[in-house]
Amino acid sequence: MLDRSVIRDLERQVDAPHVYVRPADLAAYAYDSWGASGERHLPDAVVFPGSTEEAAGVVEVCAFHEVALIPRGAGTGYAAGAAPMRGGVVVSLARMNRILGIEPDASRIHAEAGVITHAIHERAAKAGLYYPPDPGSSSTCTIGGNVACNAAGPHTMRYGVTADYVAGVTAVLADGSIVRLGEGGDGSLGDLLALITGSEGTLGVITEVLLRLIAAPPARATLAATFSGMEPAATAVAGIAGAGIVPAAIEFLDAGALDAVRRAGGGTLAADGAALVIVELEGAPDDVDTGAGRVRDAATRAGATTVEIAADAAAAQRLWAARKAVSAAVAKVMIGKVNEDVVVPRDRIAELVDFTGTLGERHQLPVVNFGHLGDGNLHATFLIDPRLPGERTRADAAAGDLFDMVLTMGGSLSGEHGVGQAKLPYVERQLGVGGVELMRRIKDAIDPRGVLNPGKKIPQASSAASNDAA
């Protein structure tokens, strides 16, 4: 529990109504989507700054009192990155939700960190521009959280991830100082921009972002192909790549994901298939038409049972709505889930999907898979009922086995969700002792008191290692 003097200092920064301390008010901030299936860690306070200057004041108070500070966007993360695992002060950017301006001639948009990502898409589209990063939770997640976790999404294969569009950020460092990095900021601090992007709140509190936009594609085509399993689906993807086609997106849903969407009201989507692949092409009209024909041929040669080209934008939107509905649909099948995002070489993703079935049997849990075939990003979801003793424990064990296999395949622990707290035990295996030690040195240099999001992303040195170092 925080001393009353700390609360008073926080209230001086943002006014009393924007500081929550009652347990009933704190409960919603005791977890993010990772903890939605059971685990809760109540913060000592939640603070809602309304400007960068107010956020800086809050950080300065926490630094002075040496109180842990946890930045939070919309809480949609699946790695406990915004969960107050050790109490402390949650700093919600929800009030900082303004788009500050758009520069069509410069192809840039300036927004506060609490802006919902979909609002960025809409504002860019009104100006005839395009912001490609499109996380599955874009209707609820915030742009600041996207930058903090370097979010990706379906369009990663062609366009890249959030970091590829970050032109600048305004951030509050651990001592409460404000820095502006990248375009429009201090050029001498430019190299810090790459560190802040993807730092998951461990190096600074992102309060504003400046994003690059691109020209909206003049034409778009969306195709859906149904397959009897993941092997022919993966073969189709290889065929598409072999034909020299670089789609804007290649998404897939396995049999479990398709069943969840149907049961949640998704109609007869791929009714006779065990895998659905959605391919989106963008570019000049002639190139899109030619590419659509090549994609259809590749899918047919791989054994697709059906191949459908969306007749119009409305039909394409329905297909994408089904894909984006998977996560919510799964929640209607089972009340809890452990959702992991991992990356493997894309020629091994069918093998990994098959392995998740083995994990489901081993740990006695239903498994649903979907994700981005284009860049080998798999969202493996273990379904649980958190009211039943042991189910969450079994799901966490299944996730651990999944991480072991992914690293054995030469993959990565995360493609877009981040490390947070959930994946800490596996970071050293992926990066090595030297890589983790470098991360610790950077953290210690920028946040020497360890105030910012402690216990996230960067594994702590073991007591034995600390004694050896001493």
Task: Please provide a written account of the structure.
Among the domains are: 89 residues, Uridine Diphospho-n-acetylenolpyruvylglucosamine Reductase, domain 2, CATH 3.30.43; 117 residues, Uridine Diphospho-n-acetylenolpyruvylglucosamine Reductase, domain 3 (2-Layer Sandwich); 108 residues, 2-Layer Sandwich (Alpha-Beta Plaits), CATH 3.30.70.2190. The protein contains 16 helices and 18 strands. The strands form four sheets. It has a seven-stranded antiparallel beta sheet with strand order 15-12-14-13-17-18-16, with helices on both faces. Strands 5-6-10-8-9 form a five-stranded antiparallel beta sheet. Strands 1-2-4-3 form a four-stranded mixed beta sheet. A hairpin with a 5-residue loop joins β8 and β9. α8 runs antiparallel to α13, α9 packs across α12 and α13 packs antiparallel against α14. The longest helix is centred in the last third of the chain and has 23 residues. It is globular, with a radius of gyration of 22 Å. The C terminus is likely disordered.
